[in-house]
Amino acid sequence: MKFSFLKLSLFATSGLAVALEHGSEYANSMGEIAMLYPSDREWSEEAETTAPCGSYSDIQNRTDFPLDNGFVALVAKSQKAWSVSLKISYKKDPTENSDFDEWANGNVTNEISIGHTCFYMPDQPSSVNSGDVATIQLEYMALEDNNDNETHYACADIKFVEDSVFKVTEEALSCFNATDNDYYSYSDYGDSTVQADETSTTASSSTSKLSTAPSSSSSSAGAVVNGLSDNSSSLLVSFIAGIFALAGIF
Questions:
Q1: Which of the four, 176, 209, 218, 223, has the lowest number of CB atoms within 10 Å?
Q2: What is the rounded CA–CA span in Å between residue 69 and residue 51?
Q3: Under 8 Å between Cβ of 126 and 89
Q4: What is the pLDDT of residues 96-152, one digit of tens each?
């Protein structure tokens, strides 16, 4: 699926509202890490260390999520979090940690950079069908004000849809990386590998071993974006960089 630069520009423009929402003001209403897609339940500082979902909110709305080539986009406001993992429950209303199964082998990442990071997840088992529901659990460690290391939680409630249905939605464009390491990438929906300087990220829906770009100390970033000319990709990268600078997320 190839996107024209016009479509990508429209995506970047619509992403401005999301970026602004996840700027400095929004940072006061989230934990160290939150789910950008699918959107998580309302955050509460008092409940964020309470399993399994770190929120006083019950299930409200469910986000459409593809059966195949699904991804989770995370936003981090600091580097105080580590041992990030994602789990899933196919129960309609999970209430215990034991209701969730490991979604990927081991942690998604031991460290996460400030900004947005996207992970492609394993495809759903054949027993899961369009219209079925699930809840994704984000779990990570973070340092509390009392200097204790605490486990933190967040949950996103989803409804499965066919991959072909999801591809034409706005959410299909929400998997991208933009971190304080000047790393920017755009995924052409699931089958591109993007490199910036000497850092790289690999997104694969065919394996549960997930990886993201390692830290880079370089102050200048290059970008190779699948399906775009050099000029178009540079413009898109600059646009996204400006969005996050405007939002004050870095």
A1: 209
A2: 28
A3: no
A4: 999 999 986 666 778 888 889 999 999 999 999 999 999 999 999 998 777 789 999
Distance of alpha carbon 199 from alpha carbon 185, whole angstroms: 11
Query: How far is it between the farthest Cα atoms of the chain?
Result: 50
pTM value? 0.67
Element (H, E) at 36: strand 33-37
* Domains in the chain: ranges and CATH: 5-247 (2.60.40.2550)
Q: How far apart are CA 181 and CA 212, in angstroms?
A: 13
Specify whether the CB–CB gap between 196 and 185 falls below 8 A.
yes
Distance, CA of 6 to CA of 12 (rounded, Å): 10
CB 99 within 8 A of CB 52: yes
Residue ranges of alpha helices (H) inside 2-47 are: 5-21, 24-27
> pLDDT tens, 35-86?
999 999 999 999 999 999 999 988 989 999 999 999 999 999 888 888 999 9
Q: Is the Cβ–Cβ distance between 188 and 51 less than 8 Å?
A: no
Q: How many CA atoms lie within 13 A of 232 on its CB side?
A: 14
Beta bridge partners of 196: 199
How buried is 35 (Cβ within 10 angstroms: 0-12 exposed, 13-18 middle, 19+ buried)? buried
DSSP 8-state code for residue 124: P
